[in-house]
């Protein structure tokens, strides 16, 4: 059991380092595809402005809680990194501390960029969904914009941010949660004189919030995308034009066979139920380790 625990902890350490490195390198190689996605989203936004849709200037459906969390996340990362450097300056070399701080900062900004991008696309889908039952513009126009945003969402989750999100945003954060709880809080080497106890609690809270925010945004985006079927059905009930009703039926049939799932790399499903499953596994592992220590 001891060997297995050591192996798991070593894998967690390696995953934290590899995940943060991937976030930095991956973003450089996929800068051009991301620029293409942003250009497409800007074009859709300009179309919405020309259509003069309601609520476009209010932007009230963007998750402001997530934006506040992102700002706090950046501040905590900068402050905690500074405090950590001051506390570790006599124990580690400067170059090693700089590498760790750079990796943490790059992962933080990469995570914030991803969350803001997903929130922006979710808001655009919300605006489109709100306009379809209003019958103010041509249905095909909103359908085309909707498909463009969905295609951008697929590109972001399956080619641009797929591996960094799985390895960095989920894997590295979960590994850091396990390491912090196991090594700093449950079984610290020197609990009484541990000067890093407060820092451990802060880092644990930040990584936990990051995972919760990611899965919450993914779940909300998935629900908003799939709400298109409901608004199309509402439009079909009030529509009098047979040609438009026929378009709605065809698009509803297509939506029926293309139920959207918020997935990373086409295999990692990000929603609240998966978060509970992931939490149960992490908590189960920690409970087993506590029982093992108590019975030792």
How would you sum up this structure, described in words?
The chain has 296 residues and is mainly alpha-helical. Helix content is 81%, strand content 1%. The protein has helices spanning 2-29, 31-51, 64-88, 94-131, 139-160, 162-186, 197-226, 228-238, 242-257, 272-294; strands at 263-264, 268-269. Strands 1-2 form a two-stranded antiparallel ribbon. A hairpin with a 3-residue loop joins β1 (263-264) and β2 (268-269). α4 (94-131) packs parallel to α7 (197-226) and α6 runs antiparallel to α7 (197-226). The protein starts with a helix and ends with a helix.
Q: In a few lines, what is going on in this structure?
A:
The chain has 296 residues and is mainly alpha-helical. The protein has helices at 2-29, 31-51, 64-88, 94-131, 139-160, 162-186, 197-226, 228-238, 242-257, 272-294, and strands at 263-264, 268-269.
Output the helix-strand order.
HHHHHHHHHEEH
Decide which structural class fits the backbone.
Answer: mainly alpha
Alpha-carbon distance between the two ends: 11 Å
Q: Number of helical segments?
A: 10
Percent strand: under 5%
Name the poorly predicted regions.
none
How many DSSP E strands?
Answer: 2
Largest sheet: 2 strands, antiparallel
Taken from the alpha-carbon principal axes, the silhouette is elongated
Helical proportion?
over 70%
Could you report the average pLDDT, rounded to the nearest whole number?
77
Order of neighbouring strands in the sheet with most strands = 1-2
Pfam family, one: 7tm_7
Membrane topology: Multi-pass membrane protein
InterPro entries: 7TM_chemorcpt
Function: Gustatory receptor which mediates acceptance or avoidance behavior, depending on its substrates.
């Amino acid at each position: 059991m001891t060997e297995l625990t050591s192996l798991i902890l070593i894998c967690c350490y390696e995953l934290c380092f590899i995940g943060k490195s991937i976030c930095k390198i991956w973003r450089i190689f996929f800068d051009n595809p991301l620029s293409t996605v942003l250009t497409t989203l800007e074009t859709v936004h300009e179309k919405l402005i020309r259509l003069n849709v309601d609520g476009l200037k209010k932007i009230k459906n963007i998750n402001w809680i997530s934006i506040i969390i992102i700002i706090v996340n950046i501040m905590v990362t900068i402050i905690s990194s500074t405090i950590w450097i001051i506390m570790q300056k006599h124990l580690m070399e400067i170059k090693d501390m700089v590498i760790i701080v750079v990796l943490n900062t790059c992962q933080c900004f990469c995570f914030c960029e991803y969350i803001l991008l997903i929130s922006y696309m979710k808001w655009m889908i919300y605006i489109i969904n709100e306009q379809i039952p209003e019958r103010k513009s041509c249905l095909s126009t909103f359908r085309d914009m909707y498909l463009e945003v969905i295609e951008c969402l697929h590109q972001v989750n399956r080619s641009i941010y797929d591996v960094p999100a799985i390895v960095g945003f989920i894997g590295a954060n979960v590994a850091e949660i396990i390491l912090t709880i196991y090594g700093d809080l449950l079984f610290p080497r020197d609990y009484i004189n541990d000067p890093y106890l407060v820092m451990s609690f802060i880092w644990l809270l930040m990584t936990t919030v990051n995972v919760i925010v990611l899965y919450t945004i993914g779940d909300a985006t998935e629900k908003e995308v799939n709400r298109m079927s409901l608004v199309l059905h509402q439009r079909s009930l009030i529509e009098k034009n047979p040609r438009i009703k026929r378009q709605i039926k065809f698009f509803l049939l297509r939506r029926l066979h293309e139920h959207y799932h918020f997935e990373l790399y086409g295999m990692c499903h990000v929603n609240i139920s998966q978060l509970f499953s992931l939490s149960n596994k992490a908590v189960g592992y920690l409970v087993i380790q506590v029982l093992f220590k108590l019975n030792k």
